[in-house]
Every structure is written in C-alpha cells, then in structure tokens.
Amino acid sequence: MLSQLKTLLKENYHIDDISTETNIKTDLGLTSFDFINLIALIEDTFHIEIDEEKYHSINTVGDLIEYIENAKS
C-alpha cells in the first residue's frame, strides 16, 4: 500500500520521500486544493470513497493507509 501511495505522490506531485509517519498536511507542502485532489486520486486508484467528515482525521500517510485498508475490507 505504501509503495502505491509513493507512486501516486511521485507521479502527480513530484514527491519522492514519504513514510508512514509523513504528515500529509504539513510535510508534503500540498495546498488545500492539492489535498482534495489527492483524496480524489486515492478514491479512484483504490476504488473507495472517503467521507468528507473523515478528511480531518487523516493526518499521516499511516492514517491514510489504515483508512484505505479499512474501507477495502
């Protein structure tokens, strides 16, 4: 899952270095528009839907991986 997210971030935002501890909102330099676009890309890539109310609880790449895994199960 982490490797898929790394590929997604590299291809769309030219971000190479992420880990599960990387804070999506502060460490990646994404604007709020970029964050919303990233959510849409993740939804399309992983065939899930992320509830808008859950956006605030997704802070790190690890949080995102956990959310994706739970949504797919």
Protein described:
This protein is mostly helical and 73 residues long. The protein has a single domain (2-72), classed as Non-ribosomal Peptide Synthetase Peptidyl Carrier Protein, Chain A, CATH 1.10.1200.10. Helices cover 53% and strands 0% of the residues. The longest helix is centred in the middle third of the chain and has 15 residues, at 32-46. It is globular and about 30 Å long.
Give the helices and strands as they follow along the chain: HHH
What is the CA-based Rg, rounded?
11 Å
Percent of residues in beta strands: under 5%
Stretches with pLDDT under 50, minimum 5 residues: none
Number of domains: 1
Please provide the count of β strands.
0
Structural class: mainly alpha
CATH class: Mainly Alpha
Tags for this entry?
73 residues, mainly alpha, 3 helices, 53% helix
Summarize the structure.
This protein has 73 residues and is mainly alpha-helical. Helix content is 53%, strand content 0%.
